[in-house]
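Hi there,

I know you've been waiting on this one. I reran it after we fixed the sequence typo, so this is the corrected version. Both the input and the resulting structure follow.
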Amino acid sequence: MDRILQLNTIFISIVIEAIPFIVLGAFVSALIEVFISENTMLRIIPKNRFLSVIFASLMGICFPGCECGIVPIAARLIKKGLAPYAAISFMLAAPIINPIVLFATFIAFGDSWEMVWYRAGLAIAVAVATGIVLSFMIKGNQLKMNTEVHVHDHSHQNTKQKFMSVITHTIDEFFTMGKYVVLGSLIAAAMQVYIPTRILTTLGGTHVTSILVMMILAFILSICSEADAFVASSFRNFFPKTSIVSFLVFGAMVDIKNLLMMFGTFKPKFVVLLVSLISSFVFIGSLFL
């Protein structure tokens, strides 16, 4: 009974933490749909694949949100004409390098910039590396068929009509992504209750295993990137700095609820490839910090 109550508490806390960012992500996605045309998107993004990946990765600085709502924004950018590999780079970097997350990291680690630079630097490196590799490996936009909706032309609408379109798109996007967040939160809560963290901490005895353990822990805990730094800072006495950075980067790119949203949006083979690349680059990057 105690475990059921604990599971319920954790589940509700994760959902409540995630919902505001799902709404924000859905709202930004709706704004992109209504106010940004395909021609505008194609005009502002560099044509060169390397420059487009770097540009898209750095766009995340302008988006104050976390990974809970980033998937629908990336999908909408793809529908608007952004190259899929560039959209993925944006999706990976934005939940980490935006000002709110970086400031939270700064506060969580005792007003120190060191962890902020490590986190932002590794995030951008992983996002750029993943985007470049994907640019050579994939063809097409990789969105699932049920997400291949028509992008409507809103240019003829007046201000009131555009506002109503934003509200409509926001509601549709919220309910589309919301079910994955609820399911992912339930799984994450169950894993936290029934898989004791002490089992993982005892496995992190070496440099390599500590990084792997913290990546797994980040996936299981599924904490929003705007709050994960405060949890990560509590592990400073148990794990080295490099593994803490891997926790902060990997968890903001791949966690349970975010993974379910990706499976609901992209083709399964693409998601498997994407997660494999992210895992590899975060692990390798952490080793060299």
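Quick highlight: The chain has a mean pLDDT of 83.

Best,
R. S.
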